[in-house]
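Can you give me the bound-state structure? Components:
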Amino acid sequence: MTTMKWSPAKRLRGTVRPPADKSISHRAAILGAMAAEPVRVRNYLHAEDTTSTLNAMRALGALVTVDGDLVTIRGTGLRNTTDLDQPIDVGNAGTLMRLLPGWLAGQEGRSYILDGDASIRRRPVDRIAEPLRAMGAVIDATDDRLPPFTVTGARLRSITYDLPVASAQVKSCVLLAGLVAEGATTVVEPAPSRDHTERMLTAAGVTVHRAGPAVTVTSVDELVLEEITVPGDPSSAAFLIAAGVLVPGSRIQVVGSGTNWTRTGFHRIVERMGGIIVGDLEEAPGDGVVGEEPIGDLDVAYGPLVGTTVEADEVPLAIDELPLVALLGCFAEGETLVRGAHELRLKESDRIATVVDGLNALGGDLEATEDGFLVRGTGGLRGGTIDSHGDHRLAMLGAIAGLASREGVTVTGMEAAEVSYPTFAQDLGGLLKG
Ligand code: S3P
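Here's the bound-state model for the whole set.
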């Protein structure tokens, strides 16, 4: 276990390029393995989660070569995964665990077991089991809802599925199953969530149709993808942005970050709170699905913050950044309220409990609710010690809290950052020297 002390920072200056997008890297690896012709993925994220995905694709029969940031995947095609007599190890990667079964569900007559680490074993899979069973696959889960679980593929029928909670992972799972089902499969979202799967499928030649909350895919014989370039990860960039906004005198440039509207809810929340972010963010999309991911540069500066309210429809657009909203709330004037975010309890840790308890131990004034939290801004944080609970985003939250605190923060379990952002300490170090 790595322990690291993050001391109060004087200011942050300079330019930083966030690591490659984790969500898009997972999808590039999976769609690459589903394709019949080789797919080149530029700027693939090399982190624990996305390495789990490359290894899973290798196990299923894809040939994967890695040459620096270029990953080349020679896939199996849509219906030809290899038989396996061992479980597929998803490690800590919830996205891999929830997306991959969509593809496996269409592998007629073949069974696959998926398992992962201790955190994965408490994350529900009933949310994907329900639609996949409705399509004809057989899913056997531990206690009917947890990993390890088995997916037995079948000839799938198409469905229209009303998502009970907004989840890009569940949406993507059903869309991937739709590729290998007969006919057209529709997912109806209660609120917009990240749309990387829809965009990448469009780029791969699939007919993806969006009409309001409904996304429809029609089954195909093959995916044709040639090359994908992964943008910087807005969720990783959010930690750098939060540091820039919180530490007085800071002025940083974040370059090459994804600016997809479905990922920039946090940026809009920060601006509402008084933080300064200048740059070209994508506008809210209408109907229709483009095949590209927008990339942009952002200028970030310190600004005095005021509290805000984040409602349920904004939650999926900032889901992984809500811990940072809690941190910003500690430094803001007035109250910050997040509601409709019960999903946070089902992430790498119970992020309502771990964030509220963690920041309270640093001198914050936060209250957990069933579906979110209330933060009473006190203008700052004293500092102290926070444990990551093996959750990458909690480890990085502790680090940023330390830079902005009065006495510094010691993070135990800092190595969890390797899951999504292996160069986190190095990148922040560069900005602290600037
Ligand atoms: C992800 C979707 C989100 C997010 C997760 C990655 C994805 O989960 O929290 O880190 O890549 O689709 P849900 O869609 O289940 O909320």
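A couple of observations. The chain has a mean pLDDT of 97. The first helix runs from residue 22 to 34.
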